[in-house]
TrEMBL record, chain A:
UniProt-listed GO biological process terms: cobalamin biosynthetic process
Gene3D superfamilies for the chain: 1.10.1760.20
Role, per record: Part of the energy-coupling factor (ECF) transporter complex CbiMNOQ involved in cobalt import.
Record's protein name: Cobalt transport protein CbiM
Species lineage: Bacteria, Bacillati, Actinomycetota, Actinomycetes, Kitasatosporales
UniProtKB/TrEMBL annotation, chain B:
Gene Ontology terms describing biological process: cobalamin biosynthetic process
Localization: Cell membrane
Entry GO terms, CC: plasma membrane
Pathway: Cofactor biosynthesis; adenosylcobalamin biosynthesis
Coiled-coil segments on the chain, per record: none
Keyword Aminoacyl-tRNA synthetase: no
Entry similarity comment: Belongs to the CbiN family.
Chain intervals for the UniProt region annotation (Disordered): 117-140
Record membrane topology: Multi-pass membrane protein
Entry-linked Pfam families: CbiN (PF02553)
Function: Part of the energy-coupling factor (ECF) transporter complex CbiMNOQ involved in cobalt import.
Record key words, sorted: Cell membrane, Cobalamin biosynthesis, Cobalt, Cobalt transport, Ion transport, Membrane, Transmembrane, Transmembrane helix, Transport
Protein known as: Cobalt transport protein CbiN
Species of the source: Streptomyces gardneri
Length: 232, 140
């Protein structure tokens, strides 16, 4: 759930817009480069964007007795690296802001910063870290997607706490309040997103081995091992 | 029915089942019962929290277009999910078709080798052809 239209003071809204803009511009460049040098990846790019579209339309009930939705940005960040998700995530946010009155144009910068920038980078970083420890691919994918989802809403909580500090307990007090609304609600949803991302990645390893190898998700050696295991 | 379900399919089904359980459990356990309005959106709760923290805050901009009713809004959300699911399904459909086409072409070349070689056994032909191709073209 994103910050609603008009619910960030103008100065904050503008500041987050300025912070997010370079990432999105850089992402547009990365996206054009990717499409130009690997035209065959366009279809998988579309599928990554589509995954974000589906997941951010699914409002799910959570343990706190309220509803929120996953973001779906982890998959694309792992496949194509985070800059590309800065674009695909922002497109999703724009669609929701314009047609669904969900999120908003004035809060687009802040929402893009949390969902399309911090989420993908945190998720991608976690994915790389878990892989470096030698964990199986799917374990890394799960934690990557989980962190991408959860960190998005932690950032949302921080953004709101900075804009609306508590009169008594300051920013930290407000952070506890917004954190309990967004971040706690998000925990089971982040688990769901992790599992769904693993599911899609499993289908991709079955259907698009060549592409995943080119993108570096499957290494040549891993593919060979898998094939040998499959042949046995 | 003794349809053989592969281990892969079972794991995928299990993943979906857990996701469904995670979504249904909060409802089944009545975790929203302590609220006046159970299972509202987190964004609406945040708006309430903002009003509590800063009672004089007024949203300074309103959406350019707002769905006129909850029904229209849910239709638009369904449209968003359908668009995404459609593109995803298209992707996997194209991939599956391509793999089947490759497998068929492979089988054909295998038959041709068989017919020409005469004595060459099928297993030998089947094993030699994929190794000459890209690593992505394992027999399904």
């Amino acid at each position: 759930m994103h910050i609603a239209e008009g619910y960030l003071p103008p100065v904050h809204a503008a500041a987050w817009g300025v912070a997010a803009a370079p990432f999105v511009v850089h992402g547009v460049r990365a996206l054009t480069r990717e499409v130009r040098s690997n035209p065959e990846s366009t279809l998988l790019l579309g599928a990554s964007g589509a995954f974000t579209f589906v997941l951010s339309a699914l409002k799910l009930p959570s343990v706190t007795g309220s509803c929120s939705h996953p973001t779906g940005t982890g998959l694309g960040a792992i496949l194509f690296r985070p800059p590309i998700m800065a674009v695909l995530g922002t497109i999703t946010l724009l669609f929701q802001a314009l047609l669904l009155a969900h999120g908003g144009l004035t809060t687009l910068g802040a929402n893009a910063f949390s969902m399309a920038i911090v989420g993908p980078w945190a998720g991608y970083g976690t994915y790389l870290l878990v892989r470096r420890f030698g964990a199986p691919l799917m374990v890394a994918v799960f934690f990557g997607a989980f962190v991408a989802d959860l960190s998005t809403y932690c950032v949302t909580s921080v953004q709101l706490a900075l804009a609306f500090p508590d009169q008594g307990s300051g920013v930290m007090g407000a952070l506890a309040k917004f954190g309990s609304i967004f971040a706690v609600t998000q925990i089971p949803l982040a688990v769901s997103e992790g599992l769904l991302t693993v599911l899609v990645m499993r289908l991709l390893t079955q259907s698009s081995k060549g592409e995943l190898t080119r993108l570096g998700v499957l290494t040549g050696a891993a593919t060979k091992r898998r094939e040998e295991a499959g042949a046995r | 029915m003794s349809v053989k379900i592969s281990r892969n399919t079972k794991i995928n089904a299990l993943l979906l089942l857990i996701v469904a359980a995670l979504a249904v459990l909060p409802l089944a356990l009545g975790l929203g019962d302590h609220k006046e309005e159970p299972f509202t959106g987190a964004d609406a709760e945040a708006e309430t929290a903002i009003t509590e923290l800063q009672p004089d805050y007024e949203p300074w901009f309103s959406p350019l277009y707002e769905p006129p009713s909850g029904e229209i809004e849910s239709a638009l959300f369904a449209l968003q999910a359908a668009l995404g699911a459609g593109v995803l399904a298209y992707y996997f459909g194209v991939r599956r078709g391509r793999r089947q086409g490759e497998a068929r072409a492979l089988a054909k070349t295998g038959d041709a080798v068989d017919a020409e070689g005469g004595a060459v056994d099928t297993a030998g032909a089947g094993a030699s052809v994929p190794s000459a191709r890209a690593p992505g073209s394992k027999d399904a």
